[in-house]
Amino acid sequence: MQKITRFPRVDGDLGWLETAPDTNVAFGPRLKGNHEFDYVVIGAGFTGISAAMRLAENEPSARIALVDALRVGEGASGRNAGFLIDLPHNMNFAKTGVEHARSLFRLNTFAIERLRQFKDRYAIPFWNDAGKYMAAHEESNLPGLENFAGMLKHAGFDHDLVTGPELTRRLGTPYYRSAVYTKGNVLVNPAALVRGLIKALPRSVTLFENSPVQAIEYGPPHKLKFIGGEISTPIVVQATNSFVEQFGKLPNRIVPIFTYASLTQPLTERQLAQHFKGVKPWGLTSAHMAGTTVRFTDDNRIFIRNTYDYLPELRSTGDELDAAWRQHRASFEARFPFLKEVTFDYTWGGVFSITQNHEPAFSRADEGVYVISGCNGVGVVKGTYLGYYMADYICGIESDDLSFILENSNPSWVPPDPLRFVGARARIAWAGVTAKGDV
After folding, report:
1. pLDDT tens digit string along 306-360?
2. In terms of domains, do 173 and 275 share one?
3. Does residue 411 sit within a domain?
4. Can you tell me the distance from the alpha carbon of 293 to that of 281, in angstroms, rounded to the nearest whole number?
5. 303 lies in which domain range?
6. Same domain, 334 and 278
7. Does residue 404 come out as left (phi exceeding 0), alpha (psi in the -120 to 50 range) or beta?
8. Do the domain assignments include residue 392?
């Protein structure tokens, strides 16, 4: 019997969820009583929803349960920065080659277009084909930006280098020295998107919210234990993000990293006219791995995301949220000194899973047990295609894309705590120092 000891919880005020439509709607009941299903997917985020939908497409008569410890949109899928990224951040042609990057681009584009179909069909709001900026403030971080632009050029990916007054005009702030703009990225309210996808679930998929798995007795059949209930199933898909180690099938492969975000109140008409005249919604990631992600949203708010930490307990405290809020204020006011009177309506934390070699976990971990994790900070898109192709893998549907995923999903070993704790904290601290003003 594998007992679960750490559970997801809400960390702070979830800005994307609070500003999404139908924020208080419950999509599924708590799991009570005894049930049998052909498939159980644990985790109702982008990865789990994608897996459940594709399983239903492949086997329309199958009975599928989709369970989550929280409400849909309260987990990592509703807390991230809302970038649907088409071009990989961490291209390393010396290691993987151009064709590897092109294969990732093809998978990312497939996921974006699949999500777009659901967005169009179910009128999911807050979708903007705005592209993405990768930018640097510090001169010391310009080489990383130039290296990214060089790799894009080498691979034949369209991009623009934007600097000076033109960059200021586009962003509404003169803070950044230079940026690389790519047009294929989509900006979303991730909570609105993941909740909107629930409308696409067929009747063969039963959703249970607020239903944390307390323990799992591996079989098959596998028996999932809940407070007041149990599910028996021959096949379980674990799409549990940073909580995957709790289920005992993927030890020492991922590092869960906590990060934090804030979302301002909407800017006033006067503020928009004075400082953002002609500025369209935009999203920006930093040329430095520890730098700040910034967005100017469709509803005229500023989004700030930075501050990283390794928290083995997979939850934050009030003190940690307060420290993140203070860092967010400093980062916000450095970029927008003319908006110091603008307050943050929401500040929250969330955890994402990274791997040492940037490859995800995507495997059959045991008989009837399949595991997905390690999306390395790009889980909206990566989780969507990994969930889709995991369903194909389970159902025996072969493809070149599935073969590529299987060949490139071998996360390298990471040491257990306390070595992992020491190493992660040291690396995070050093990254913060070298990022300097890009935080």
Report:
1. 999 999 999 999 999 999 999 999 999 999 999 999 999 999 999 999 999 999 9
2. yes
3. yes
4. 14
5. 129-187+255-356+424-438
6. yes
7. alpha
8. yes
CA 262 vs CA 147, 175, 223: distances in Å: 30, 19, 39
Q: 3-state SS of the chain: helix, strand, coil percent to 5? A: 40, 25, 40
Residue 53: CB partners within 8 Å, gap ≥ 6?
A: 197, 200, 201, 202, 205, 388, 391
Residue 58 and residue 47 share a domain: yes
In a domain, 123, yes or no: no
DSSP state at residue 313: T
Q: Can you give the pTM of this predicted structure?
A: 0.97
Segment 64-93 shows an average pLDDT of 93
Structural tokens at position 277: 């005249």
**Looking at residue 168, which CATH number applies to its domain?**
3.30.9.10
Distance, in Å, from the CA atom of 414 to the CA atom of 422, rounded to the nearest integer, reads 12
Residues 152 and 60 in one domain: no
**Residue 176 and residue 296 in one domain:** yes
Domain count, the chain: 2
Q: Is 337 exposed, middle or buried (0-12, 13-18, 19+ CB in 10 A)?
A: exposed
Separation of alpha carbons 294 and 89, rounded Å: 16
Please list, in sequence order, all residues whose beta carbon lies within 8 angstroms of the beta carbon of residue 76, skipping any fewer than 6 positions away: 45, 241, 242, 350, 351, 352, 379
Please, what's the b/e burial string for 140-160 (b: 16 or more CB within 10 A of its CB; e: otherwise)? ebeebbeebbebbeebebebe
Which residues are registered as beta bridge partners of 40?
65, 236
**H helix intervals, 123-260:** 142-155, 164-171, 190-197
d(CA 331, CA 292): 8
Same domain? 8 vs 21: yes
Report if residue 153 sits inside a domain: yes
CA dihedral 39, 398, 84, 14 (to 10 degrees): 10
